[in-house]
Amino acid sequence: MNNLKFVVVDDAVFMRTLLKKIIEEVESYKVVAEGANGIEAIEKAQVYKPDIMTLDITMPDMDGITAVKEILKYSPDTKIIMVSAMGQQSMVIDAIKLGAKDFVVKPFEKSRVLQAISNVLAI
């Protein structure tokens, strides 16, 4: 696949920056937008229809789990990768049931992020 569009959503600017850096190390991957909460994630999904979205679970205003269903309503082909902190396994399972395709745990390794992207591309 060439030129995949990504949207990175996390309330922590540092995490967004780190994820964007990892993603854009792959030549054909481009982060087209960023968001800080679930509401922004839904807006970005409507506008950009990204191939892949990374979505933090715990965010202000609207969490990632609540946002999953809405994102997929507006952009059904977007593959969502949840980003969770340690100890959020039950929330990750909830997100997967709602339509998320994979997850990475913070603090994440570059290899695990790239593996999750590979996993969802194979679906």
From TrEMBL:
The modification 4-aspartylphosphate is found at residue 56. PROSITE patterns: RESPONSE_REGULATORY. The keyword Cell division does not apply. This is Stage 0 sporulation protein A homolog. Residues 5-121 form the Response regulatory domain. It comes from Acetivibrio mesophilus. InterPro entries: CheY-like_superfamily, Sig_transdc_resp-reg_receiver. The keyword Phosphoprotein applies. The lineage of its organism: Bacteria, Bacillati, Bacillota, Clostridia, Eubacteriales. Pfam families: Response_reg.
